[in-house]
Each structure stands twice: as structure tokens, then as C-alpha cells.
């Protein structure tokens, strides 16, 4: 079994031992489930942070897969945002983040003056820093500096997103110094097995991501010359090999449930969602050949034509754009509210990558009965491909080092090879080097023929969108930042769609913390300086 598989049960059990069941009002009152420095083991605390981290990031990705058209959104934006993301009675993502933040600050306190914990604290700062900027990216202002300190601040105030970002940048810089100075390892590191060079590559890459993310408003985080700062990173140690990719690997463990969330959705029981027709169209029909990744990304359960059997009535609906794409790729359009056709076993589901499901070789077997990887998929968080796309965007929009076209090619190829090598499977339907070359040549020809930098950026971000399958956090951010892909499908059943530029606060927190008032989904996070109605 993969090393992660051996450890996941231990970590999950440690989570229950440390925290018990979910609790609410975590930063408002004394929480008996929180560990203090006097009672904490830093190894267990960092294990718990790793567990909370992958759980939080995985859930945030699930929350925006439909908003970003990877899955089909079967409601309107206001309805789906208020139900699925941070609002609601449980607010698990909100709670999980603040439990991780509490543990993080405990580790930092334990690490003061203890050189054996330098690497522990550095990893802690990087993981919780990534969670923190993700919280800001989704909701804007958050309780941060006063949070998880109930004795001094029983009700934590909201902090501006730019101030929180700046604090995370300072933590990243300190983490890099601590990694370089560390001599003691973290024995259960689920990401890089205490490889210091890989952690530093991740830290630099996370910083690059932050600088590109905030490029429209970089002065708000104290960056007066982002070009200089980004060029320093480009000249240094970044994630640039698959071995350095920052990802979480799931295990085929059922108790506790440790399989990829996509696998749980599509293979453990009948698929209750639909894949997005727009995303499938982009893979299948948007170029002169199919995307070489399509059989890895998607799995078709049945060779049934929905226009023949009486499940799908989309042909009678004037608003539907794609309806049915052919070749048994069966999903729904964005915002399609007519569901429940009884076709769960005929729908297209998640495939081999990143879900750990089945590779599509025209077998047309129900997902639950297919030969698959039993959910041993990955959470692709910050990969070589993503770093190259960010570098290409930066080179084009800011004039940083590197040729945008060359970086675009490197980004696409990194994604293709990662996907094609996933699972070490053998099949006559595997993508070929020739198909990858033809795909890349077509994209680069379109890029060379583009009439403006705006059109060129559209091509870069569209390819980023296709490579980011499995991480809609990236897609949600770059869509708000750039407005691309420009051909993205607008909700078909909403005459005046209002894309959520941010998400609601935890309903529990709004109810109990007088400093937090619920906000509209039209409120923009600090780095999103684009106008209202910019995207739909």
C-alpha cells in the first residue's frame, strides 16, 4: 500500500482522539477540543493539520466544481452558493479551517526556541497559509488576527483580505528560512517525506501564485514592483518536475473513508451528479481532435443514446446549448434545472485522473462494477503545469521573464504527461505522443495567430482551465481575475445570472459573532478589481 494509505488511518484516528465530533462557535468561546501547548504533541498536531488541510481543500474544490462547469450546476447561483459552500448549519469548511488555525498557532508557540521543531513549524505555516488565502479568496474578509483566542477576543473581528495575505507572505518567507535551517525531520509528512528542497520549491511556487493572483492590486499587499519579485522567483527553485508536484494522494481505505471524493461520488453508489456539458465539449469538440486527456478525465458508463431513450428532453428546450454531445458523453448544460431522468447508470462520470476511477476504453460498464483504481486518486493542488500557466500569464500580462508561448507549451505538456502516466495502466486506447504533439501545435498556432494580448491570454487561461480539472479553486480564481475562458457557458435557465464573486459567511458564525454581518455574493475580494457584471 502507498505510504499515504498506511498513515491515513492513523491520522484519521488521531483526529477523532484530538477533536471528537465537530464543534461550532470555535473562536467565540473556550473550546474543550482545542489542545494547548501544555497538552499537545507537535507531531500529532501537524498530522491533524495535514488531515484538516486535505479535507478543507477537497471540500472547497467540490463546492465550486459546478460553479466552474466541471460538474453541471442544476440550480441558480444564489441557490447553489447558499446551500453548498460556507453557509448552512454545519459550516464544516469554516470550522475545519479555524481548528487548523488553532493547531497552527499552538505549533508555532511550541517551536519558539526549539530547533527540533523548525521543519514542523515551517510545514505548518505553509499548509495553513494556503488554507488561509483560500478562505480569503472565497469569502473576502475573515477573522484572523484575533481568531482562536477566546480569552482575549471572545468575538473576533473581521480582517481585510490584503492584511491577511500580507501576513501569509511573511509566514512563507519565514518558513523558507526555517526549512533551510532545520536539521530534524517530520516523520509522517504526507506530501514530501521531509524533503527540504521540495518544500522550498512549494513555498516559492505558492508565493508566485499569490503574486500572480494579486497582480491587479499588488500594491494592496505592499508589492510595489511585482515584476522584480516574480522574476526572483522564476530564477530560483520552483515546482518544475512531477516529483515536486504538490498534491495529496488518497488511499483505497474504506474505514475510515479515505478514497478520492470523486470516486465516492461516482463509483461507491450511483452517480448523483452530472458532468458539465461545456467542459466535455471543450475536451471533445473544441479543437480539430479530441483532447488526449479525455479518456483519463471522463468515464462513460453506457452506450445508450439519450435522444433515443425517453430520459432526456433537452431537445425540446430552446435555452439548451449543448444538450447531448454524442458518443455517449452524457451530462447537462450549465444551470440546467430539469434533472431526475433516472439515468444515473448511463451518465458520464469521473474517470481515472484524478479520481482514481476507471480508464475509458469503450467498455461501457457501470462505474461501480468497472475495473478501476479503487479511489487512489490525487488532489492536484499546485503542480508543474499550474506553475507554468501562472508563469505564462505573468509573462504576458506583466512582462516578467520567459516567453509566454514557450511557457504555455511547457504547461500543456506537463499536464498531458502527468495525466497520461497516472495509474500506470495498459490499454490500446492510451493517448499517444503524436496526439499530444498535434494538440500542442494547434494551440500554439492559434496563439501565434491571435490578434491581441487579450486573445492570447484567453488561450492561456482556457488551457489552464482544461488542465485544472480536479482543482476548481484555481479555475474560480483565474476566471474572476481574467474573465476567461471567454466562451464559457452562461447559466441557461437564468435570464440575469449574477456570478458569485465571493461566498457567504458561515451562518452559525453570523448568528453568534456580532462583528460579522452576512454579505452579498456580488461583493468582490480585494484582488478582484474587475467591474460588476464582468463574468456570468
Structural write-up:
The chain has helices at 3-19, 42-65, 77-84, 92-111, 118-139, 161-181, 196-213, 226-234, 261-268, 277-284, 294-297, 384-398, 404-420, 433-449, 453-467, 472-482, 507-512, and strands at residues 142-143, 158-159, 246-249, 298-300, 348-350, 378-382. By secondary structure, it is mainly alpha-helical. It folds into 2 domains: 38-238 and 501-535, Alpha Horseshoe (Serine Threonine Protein Phosphatase 5, Tetratricopeptide repeat), CATH 1.25.40.390; 242-494, Alpha Horseshoe (Serine Threonine Protein Phosphatase 5, Tetratricopeptide repeat). The strands form 3 sheets. A two-stranded antiparallel sheet has the order 1-2. α5 (118-139) packs antiparallel against α6 and α7 (196-213) packs antiparallel against α8 (226-234). The longest helix has 24 residues, at 42-65. It starts with a helix and ends in a 24-residue tail after the last helix.
Amino acid at each position: 500500500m502507498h505510504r499515504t494509505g498506511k498513515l491515513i488511518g492513523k491520522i484519521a484516528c488521531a483526529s477523532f482522539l484530538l477533536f471528537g465530533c465537530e464543534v461550532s462557535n470555535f473562536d467565540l468561546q473556550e473550546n474543550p477540543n482545542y489542545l494547548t501547548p501544555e497538552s499537545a504533541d507537535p507531531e500529532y498536531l501537524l498530522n491533524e493539520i495535514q488531515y484538516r488541510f486535505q479535507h478543507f481543500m477537497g471540500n472547497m474544490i467540490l463546492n465550486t466544481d459546478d460553479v466552474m462547469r466541471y460538474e453541471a450546476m442544476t440550480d441558480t447561483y444564489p441557490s447553489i452558493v447558499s446551500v453548498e459552500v460556507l453557509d448552512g448549519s454545519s459550516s464544516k469548511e469554516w470550522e475545519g479551517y479555524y481548528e487548523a488555525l488553532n493547531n497552527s498557532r499552538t505549533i508555532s508557540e511550541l517551536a519558539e526556541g526549539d530547533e527540533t521543531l523548525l521543519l514542523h513549524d515551517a510545514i505548518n505555516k505553509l499548509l495553513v497559509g494556503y488554507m488561509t488565502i483560500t478562505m480569503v479568496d472565497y469569502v473576502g474578509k475573515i477573522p484572523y488576527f484575533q481568531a482562536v483566542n477566546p480569552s482575549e477576543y471572545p468575538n473576533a473581528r473581521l480582517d481585510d483580505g490584503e492584511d491577511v495575505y500580507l501576513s501569509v507572505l511573511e509566514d512563507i518567507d519565514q518558513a523558507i528560512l526555517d526549512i533551510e535551517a532545520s536539521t530534524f525531520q517530520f516523520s509522517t509528512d504526507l506530501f514530501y517525506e521531509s524533503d527540504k528542497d521540495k518544500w522550498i520549491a512549494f513555498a516559492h511556487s505558492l508565493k508566485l501564485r499569490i503574486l500572480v493572483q494579486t497582480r491587479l492590486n499588488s500594491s494592496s499587499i505592499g508589492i510595489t514592483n511585482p515584476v522584480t519579485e516574480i522574476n526572483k522567483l522564476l530564477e530560483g527553485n520552483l515546482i518544475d518536475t512531477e516529483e515536486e508536484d504538490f498534491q495529496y494522494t488518497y488511499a483505497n481505505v474504506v474505514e475510515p473513508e479515505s478514497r478520492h471524493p470523486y470516486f465516492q461520488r461516482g463509483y461507491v453508489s450511483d452517480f448523483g451528479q452530472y458532468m458539465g456539458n461545456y467542459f466535455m465539449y471543450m475536451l471533445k469538440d473544441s479543437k480539430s481532435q479530441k483532447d488526449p486527456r479525455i479518456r483519463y478525465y471522463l468515464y462513460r458508463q453506457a452506450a445508450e443514446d439519450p435522444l433515443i431513450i425517453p430520459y432526456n428532453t433537452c431537445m425540446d428546450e430552446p435555452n439548451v446549448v449543448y444538450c447531448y454531445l454524442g458518443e455517449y458523453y452524457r451530462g447537462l448544460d450549465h444551470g440546467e434545472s430539469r434533472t431526475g431522468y433516472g439515468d444515473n447508470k448511463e451518465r458520464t462520470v469521473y474517470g481515472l485522473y484524478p479520481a482514481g476511477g476507471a480508464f475509458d476504453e469503450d467498455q461501457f460498464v457501470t462505474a461501480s462494477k468497472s475495473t478501476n483504481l479503487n479511489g487512489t486518486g490525487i488532489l492536484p493542488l499546485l503542480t508543474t503545469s499550474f506553475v507554468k500557466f501562472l508563469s505564462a500569464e505573468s509573462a504576458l500580462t506583466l512582462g516578467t521573464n520567459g516567453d509566454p508561448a514557450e511557457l504555455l507549451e511547457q504547461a500543456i505538456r506537463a499536464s498531458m504527461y502527468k495525466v497520461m502516466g497516472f495509474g500506470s495502466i495498459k490499454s490500446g486506447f492510451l493517448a499517444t505522443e503524436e496526439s499530444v504533439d498535434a494538440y500542442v501545435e494547434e494551440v500554439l498556432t492559434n496563439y501565434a495567430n491571435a490578434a491581441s494580448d487579450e486573445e492570447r491570454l484567453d488561450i492561456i487561461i482556457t488551457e489552464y482551465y482544461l488542465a485544472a480539472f480536479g482543482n476548481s479553486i484555481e479555475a474560480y480564481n483565474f476566471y474572476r481575475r481574467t474573465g476567461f475562458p471567454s466562451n464559457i457557458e452562461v447559466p441557461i435557465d437564468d435570464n440575469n445570472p449574477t456570478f458569485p464573486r465571493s461566498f457567504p459567511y458561515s451562518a452559525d458564525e453570523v448568528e453568534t459573532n456580532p462583528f460579522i454581518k452576512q454579505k452579498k455574493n456580488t461583493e468582490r475580494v480585494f484582488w478582484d478589481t474587475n467591474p460588476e457584471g464582468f463574468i456570468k
